[in-house]
Structures are given as C-alpha cells and as structure tokens.
C-alpha cells in the first residue's frame, strides 16, 4: 500500500522496449559513426570494415521491418560509403516510393543514381533534396550543377553553384576555386562573357596557373570572337603544360574549325601519346574524317568503343564514319543496335534519322526525327531534321512548315532560317513554272528576308522583273549587287532592273561593270548584250547593232541578241527616217527581213509600218499606202486608235494632197494620245509649208502668203518660214521688205544670200554686189544649188572682162522648200 501510494516524484519513465529492427538500426548507426571516424583518420581498411558491419546491421533491420525508413536510410548511407551504389538503389527505392517526401531516403538514393549515371532518374530526386536547402545536403548542389553543365543548362548550373557557395562551411572555402571554375563554364554556356571571365579569374587568383582555368579563358575569347587570340593562349598552355590533355584537345578542335587539319593532327597524336583515352581517339577520328579518310576514322572510333563500350558519342561517331564511306546500311544497323541496347540520346536519334535519309529511307527518317521532336519539343533540332527529310523529297510545303516550327521554338536559329529560305525558293520556282508568279514572288520576298545573300537577291530580282515590278526589282538588286559574294550575275540583273525602270545610263554602267567582274567569254557576251540594249535606249543604236551582231560564244547571249536585234534594227530604221535617210532605213529593214521576226506579230507589223513610211519618203506612195494598211489591219498593240489616220495624213502630205491630209489630221486630232499634240502641231505646220510651196510654184502668191502666215503663227521664230514669206513679198513687189528680211536671216538661212544676189543682179543691176552675195552663199558650203550658183557667179565675172557674157541667170527669188 505504501509503495502504491508513494508520490509521483518517486516514479521513473521507462521508454517502451525497442523492436529487434530498431535495435539493429541503433547498432548500425554506432558502427556507421565509427566508420566515419576511421575514414576521417585515414584508416581506409578500418573504415571499410565498419561500413560493412553497419550495412549488415541495417540490412537485417530492413529485412525485419521492410518499411522502416530509418533502416532504409542506414542501408543507403552505409552502401554509399562502400560505393555500392546499386545496393542503395535496390534497397532504398521501394521504401522512398512509400515515403516520397522523406529526405533521409531521397538523399542517398539520389546520390547513388547519380553515381550510376542514371541521370533521368537521379536529377528529380536530387532536385527534391536541393529544394530543402539544408547544409548537410551540400554535395547535392554540386552534383546537380555538374549535371546541368553536362546537359548544357547554364542558368540552372549557375543557380546551384551560387547556392553551394552560400551553404558551404568556412573550412571548405579553400576549395572554392573549383566552384568558380564551374561557374565560369556555366556562364560560358549562358554566353555571359563578363561573368565568365570574372569567374575564371577568381578561380585562378592566388593559385598556380591552372590549365583548365586557362582553357576556360580561351572559351571566353571565343565568345568575344577573338578566335586567333584563343588559339594563341592555348598554344602557350600546351607548351607550359605538355602533360595536360584538355588544352591539347581544345586547341585541336579550334584548328579543325579553322581548317588547319595538319596542326589538329599534331595535337591529336600528342594527345593519344599522353594516354589512349576515349576522348583522344575520338579526336583523332575526327581529324581523319576531316582528312577524308573515313576508313581510318572508323578505326579510331571503334577504339573509343573498345575502351568504353556503349559510349554514345563513340557509337554515333562510328555511324558517321560508316556513312561517310557510303555504307549507309551498316551505319543504320550499328545505330539501331545502339538504340536497342538502351541508348536514348537525342543526338543518337538525330544521327540515326539523318543516316536513314541519306540511305533513301525517307519514311523511317521522318519517324525517327518525329521522335526527336517529342524528346526535345523546346528545341529546333527535331523540326530542322524533319525539314531536311521533306526537303530531300521535294515536299516544299511540309519542309516550309517544319522550318517555320523550328523558328517558333528558336527564332534566331541560323540553320532553320537558311533552309527555310531555300525551301521557299524551291517552291517559288515550282509556282513560277505553273504560272503562279504572284505566289512565287511572295515566297521569294520571305526567303530574301530570311537569307540576305546575293543569290537570293538574284532570284527575287528575276521574279520581280518577270512580274514587271521594276522599281522594287531595282531596289533589291541595288542591294544584292553589294552583298558579299556578289558576282557578275548580280550586276547583269541589276543592269536589266535599271533598264526596265527607265534609267538606261545607270543600266549601261551596271552592264559594263559586270563585264569587268568576269573573264569568261560566255559571261562577257551576256553583259555585252545587256549593254547593247541600254545603248539602244540612249540613242546609241549603231553601237548597239554592232554588239548584237557580234555576240560571242554564249548561247544565252545569242538568244537574247536574236530576240532583240530585229527590234533594234527597226528602231534604227525609224531614227534614220526621222533624219531623212530613207535609203539607210531600207537597208535596216532588209536585214530585219533576212533575220526574221519569228512569231512576234507586233514586231512584224512594226517593221512593215516602218517600210511604209520609207516608201512614202521615197515617193512610192501606192506601195506606202498598201504597206501601212497591212501593218495597221488589225491594229497591233503598239498602235494608237488614231495611228491609221496619222499615217494616211503623212502619205497624203508626201503626195502633195494637202486638203485630204489636213482632213485626216483633223480627225486624228479629235482624240490625241499622250505625246501627240506636239507632233500634230508640227505636222500642221508642215502642211501649211507644203501648201505654200505648191502655191508659190504655181504662181498663187495669195494662197502662198496665207499658208506661210498660218505656219508662222504656229511658230513665229521659224527662220525658214520667215525667209519664204519674204520671197512671196519679193514676188509681189515688196522688195524692200524682202531684202530686210533676207539680210537679217542670212546668217541662219544660207539661201538668203542667194536671193540677195538674185535681187542685186536682176532688179538693181549691181553685178558686183550679186557676185559678192553668191560668193557668201558658196562659202556656206551647203544647199542643192551650189554648182548652179557657181556657174552664175563665174558668168557675171566674165561680163566684166573676166569671162564670157552671163546667160541663164535666175529671174526670180528662190524659196527654200521645207519638209
């Protein structure tokens, strides 16, 4: 009773007895602590014995209680201490599945998976542990950062390394240089040049020169575009550290990129000599491949797999070497075997699909590359490869869609831009072939926006010329001719663009400059033909005809010349007619008939029209009318609605039928076309002058005066009309007015001197004055009456004792007929 009634202070707490599993866990923990102490003292053998004892106890505890978190955590810690990673995975993973938030399980399991390089499984577990941000899990941040660097995820690596530096205890600060070096590599991935340089410099500060840090600084120089400086830096590092493999490998890679295969080979051989590592043989294989020795490259790549079986990069390299030898089926089988063995690399699938494409297995290539898209939906790689598959089979619409998808994921992907532009160019070519020129131009505009190169500018410029968008074609080619790699072809198209936009002088300069950019006879012939067309527009028709009749060896130039020479000859014939050279115009038209105009009915009719005008000039009026009628029935495209009336008026004018000609001209003038009013006014004046000439010849001075005054009203400054009107005054007895006019016009109208002489001889009987006036007329050296006037002058001189008596002198003033 006394005992039971004792005060509570006398009672003692006793915990519930431990289970057998708990007891073994406690003993295991004691053994684990002892193992850690032995390891810290450098007693590796003792530490291993104690870890094995702890592991045995923890495994017994876990067997007794399979769901025990403490026992599973102990197994994981002890097994990891013994580097028995697979045991940790086998024992801890099932328990973690039942307790997914238990960090004591996630930590050892994540480390074990990481050590087994089972990264897809390890990373989520380690990220869970890292999120707890506990100091005892410090190494997790390091592991994650290392994986992110391997996976090329610079931002994530920077985050983990920064956190590591914040959590690490002060006693580990002496090793921070390693973390700063990793930080530098992460910033290189981020392309943050300033941060990368600062991290590498901090890693190097206060320590002996480190080859790997110098390697990082070389990467910074590469980012800055200072590749020669990067090579120089590494060359120095390899000399100071001849046993360091990493700088040699990086230097060799830089040499390969620069195309300096010989130096790359020297570094690769030196690297192999240092140690027959997988990386060394991989590099040497790449060198052999660059030397176009695919068989030797295959041998090196197979050595990589002998040293490290299943190495993914080695498997892909062997496939690449087999492919380079044209052994596509072997390459496919090799890479398929790698896939079946469990390799699941993005690069492996990408290479497998590409080899299938090169082997002509396009459907399989598409299937494989679709898997690449599924594996990396946020990368452009899969879409670019799919685009290449569809590009190879000419499926332009699908290829364009693929490359567009790639640019949606990575807007600045250079390869996607380039190949999208090429696919658009191919589709544009097909569309142009089916007459869809507007669609073709749209594709080429987009292609040129993506790929600002001279060839792409040339494609767009040609399409714009085809659609008669001449100003835009000129703008495109002005730029295209200045782009890197521009050749005479861009200059040739620029010339045509300028010519089409109406700037013949600039076009001629472009054609001539293009001719200086090549030494090929065919190319020079093409530029010469273009220059000829520009010369035509500049009025240098003779030079153009000479170029077009002596083309050169180019078939293309010959075709262009053959298509344009008849047109140019017709144009020269028209120019000769305008200058009054009907005979020369006939020669050109005869040559046109010889060359032929093909099926160009408009040019045929223009030549016939020109022939009709030439016949009118020659006075063969019936032939002229017939030719003009055939040329204008039915009306060709180049003819205006009133061209027929104008042509008839011209023939009637040449026949001297002024009234009918004036009637036709009046009909044509009711609806004048652009540019015609000036010509109509000129033709009206010509009709007045022709009417005056006919009236003067018939003695009808009244009608002649009326017609000349009408002509003078239209053009008061016409000196020849003023002269002829003075002739009418002289015939009407108004000699004083006539003489005043002739004296005033003598400098510009030579025949005025002739008439002054006639007046002096016939009316005023002043032979000396007449001889002097005719001498001035003869000195002018022009006019159809030079021989006759010379005879008159000599006869007058003979009357004064110098020769026989003068006879046959003119009895009236001479009016100069005007066309």
TrEMBL record:
Q: Where is the composition biased (Low complexity)?
A: 30-40, 803-819
Spans of TPR repeats, please give: 346-379, 380-413
Which SMART domains does this UniProt record tie to the protein? TPR
The superkingdom of the source organism is Bacteria
Which species is listed as the source?
Pyxidicoccus fallax
What residue spans carry the region label Disordered?
A: 1-45, 800-819
| PROSITE patterns listed in its UniProt record | TPR
* Protein name from the UniProt record: Tetratricopeptide repeat protein
Keyword annotations for this protein? Repeat, TPR repeat
């Amino acid at each position: 009773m006394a005992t039971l009634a004792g005060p509570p202070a006398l009672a003692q707490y006793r915990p519930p007895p431990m289970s057998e599993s708990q007891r073994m866990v406690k003993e295991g923990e004691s053994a684990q602590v002892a193992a850690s102490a032995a390891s810290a003292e450098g007693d590796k053998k003792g530490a291993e014995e104690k870890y094995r004892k702890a592991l045995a106890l923890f495994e017994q505890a876990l067997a007794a209680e399979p769901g025990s978190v403490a026992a599973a955590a102990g197994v994981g810690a002890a097994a990891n201490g013994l580097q028995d990673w697979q045991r940790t995975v086998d024992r801890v993973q099932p328990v973690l599945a039942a307790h997914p938030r238990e960090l004591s399980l996630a930590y050892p399991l994540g480390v074990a998976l990481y050590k087994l390089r089972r990264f897809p499984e390890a990373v989520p577990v380690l990220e869970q542990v890292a999120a707890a941000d506990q100091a005892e899990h410090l190494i997790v941040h390091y592991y994650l950062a290392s994986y992110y660097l391997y996976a090329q995820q610079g931002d994530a690596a920077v985050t983990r390394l920064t956190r590591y530096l914040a959590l690490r205890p002060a006693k580990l600060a002496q090793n921070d240089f390693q973390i700063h070096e990793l930080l530098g590599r992460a910033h290189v991935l981020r392309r943050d040049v300033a941060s990368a340089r600062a991290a590498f410099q901090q890693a190097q500060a206060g320590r002996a020169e480190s080859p790997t840090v110098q390697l990082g600084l070389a990467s910074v120089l590469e980012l800055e575009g200072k590749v020669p400086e990067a090579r120089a830096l590494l060359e120095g590092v390899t000399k100071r550290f001849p046993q360091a493999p990493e700088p040699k490998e990086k230097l060799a890679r830089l040499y390969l990129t620069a195309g300096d295969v010989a130096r790359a080979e020297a570094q690769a051989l030196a690297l192999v000599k240092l140690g027959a590592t997988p990386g060394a043989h991989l590099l040497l294989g790449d060198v052999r491949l660059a030397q176009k020795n695919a068989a030797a490259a295959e041998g090196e790549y197979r050595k990589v797999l002998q040293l490290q079986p299943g190495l993914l990069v080695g498997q892909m390299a062997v496939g690449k070497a087999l492919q380079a030898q044209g052994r596509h089926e072997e390459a496919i089988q090799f890479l398929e075997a790698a896939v079946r063995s469990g390799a699941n690399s993005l690069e492996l699938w990408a290479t497998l699909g590409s080899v299938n494409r090169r082997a002509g297995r396009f459907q399989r290539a598409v299937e494989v590359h679709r898997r690449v898209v599924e594996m990396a939906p946020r990368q452009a790689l899969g879409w670019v490869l799919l685009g290449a598959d569809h590009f190879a089979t000419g499926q332009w619409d699908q290829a364009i869609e693929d490359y567009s998808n790639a640019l949606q994921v990575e807007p600045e992907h250079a390869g996607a831009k380039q190949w999208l532009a090429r696919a658009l160019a191919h589709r544009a070519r097909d569309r142009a072939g089916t007459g869809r020129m507007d669609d073709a131009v749209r594709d080429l505009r987009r292609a040129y926006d993506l790929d600002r190169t001279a060839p792409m500018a040339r494609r767009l410029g040609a399409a714009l010329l085809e659609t008669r968008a001449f100003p835009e074609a000129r703008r495109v080619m002005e730029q295209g001719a200045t782009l890197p790699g521009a050749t005479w072809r861009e200059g040739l198209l620029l010339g045509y663009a300028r010519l089409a936009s109406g700037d013949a002088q600039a076009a001629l300069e472009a054609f001539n400059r293009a001719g200086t950019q090549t030494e090929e006879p065919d190319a020079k012939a093409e530029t010469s033909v273009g220059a000829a067309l520009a010369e035509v527009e500049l009025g240098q028709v003779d030079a153009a005809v000479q170029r077009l009749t002596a083309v050169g060896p180019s078939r293309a130039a010959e075709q262009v010349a053959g298509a344009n020479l008849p047109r140019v000859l017709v144009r020269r014939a028209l120019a000769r007619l305008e200058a009054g050279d009907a005979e020369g115009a006939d020669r050109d038209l005869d040559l046109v008939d010889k060359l032929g105009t093909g099926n160009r009915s408009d040019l045929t009719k223009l030549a016939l029209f020109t022939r009709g005008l030439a016949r009118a000039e020659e006075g063969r009026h019936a032939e002229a009318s017939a030719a003009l009628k055939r040329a204008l029935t039915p009306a060709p495209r180049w003819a205006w609605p009133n061209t027929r009336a104008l042509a008839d008026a011209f023939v009637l004018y040449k026949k001297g039928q002024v009234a009918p000609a004036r009637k036709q001209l009046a009909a044509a003038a009711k609806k004048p076309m652009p540019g015609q009013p000036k010509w109509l006014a000129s033709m009206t004046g010509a009709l007045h002058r022709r009417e005056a000439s006919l009236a003067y010849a018939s003695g009808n001075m009244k009608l002649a005066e009326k017609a000349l005054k009408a002509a003078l009203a239209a053009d008061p400054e016409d000196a020849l009309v003023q002269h002829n009107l003075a002739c009418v005054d002289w015939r009407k007895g108004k000699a004083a007015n006539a003489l005043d006019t002739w004296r005033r016009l003598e400098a510009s109208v030579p025949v005025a001197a002739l008439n002054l002489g006639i007046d002096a001889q016939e009316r005023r009987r002043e032979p000396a004055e007449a001889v002097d006036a005719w001498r001035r007329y003869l000195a002018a050296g022009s006019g159809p009456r030079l021989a006759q006037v010379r005879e008159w002058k000599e006869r007058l001189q003979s009357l004064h004792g110098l020769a026989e008596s003068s006879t046959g002198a003119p009895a009236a003033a001479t009016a100069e007929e005007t066309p």
